[in-house]
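Design a sequence for this backbone.
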């Protein structure tokens, strides 16, 4: 069931992309599976990117991402049965000794 949903999501996303959709889709896959993104050339060396390295630049130059369509597609993926909890730590300070979130805050 989850695989079918993922496949449907990818097909809908692919259909909403315009020019250079094949290269752009391969580029998105390369971004998703790459542990560390250093450059476009490194992305083009990913096994899932099946084109020449110059296609990375061409895909970004020739495509216009339909932001509203993609945003609607992404919002549809959020489960509505429960209220989602979105949390993240974007602080630049490491606090390995912090036991609680309150200990990680910056007091001024």
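Sequence:
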């Amino acid at each position: 069931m989850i695989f079918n949903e993922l496949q449907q999501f990818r097909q809908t996303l692919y259909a909403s992309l315009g020019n250079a959709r094949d290269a752009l889709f391969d580029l998105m896959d390369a971004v998703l599976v790459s542990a560390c993104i250093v450059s476009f050339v490194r992305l083009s060396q990913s096994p899932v990117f099946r084109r020449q390295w110059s296609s990375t630049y061409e895909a970004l130059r020739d495509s216009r991402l339909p932001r509203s369509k993609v945003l609607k597609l992404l919002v549809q993926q959020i489960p509505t049965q429960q209220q989602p909890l979105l949390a993240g730590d974007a602080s630049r300070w490491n606090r390995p000794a912090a036991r609680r979130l309150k200990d990680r805050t910056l007091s001024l």
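The radius of gyration is 19 Å.
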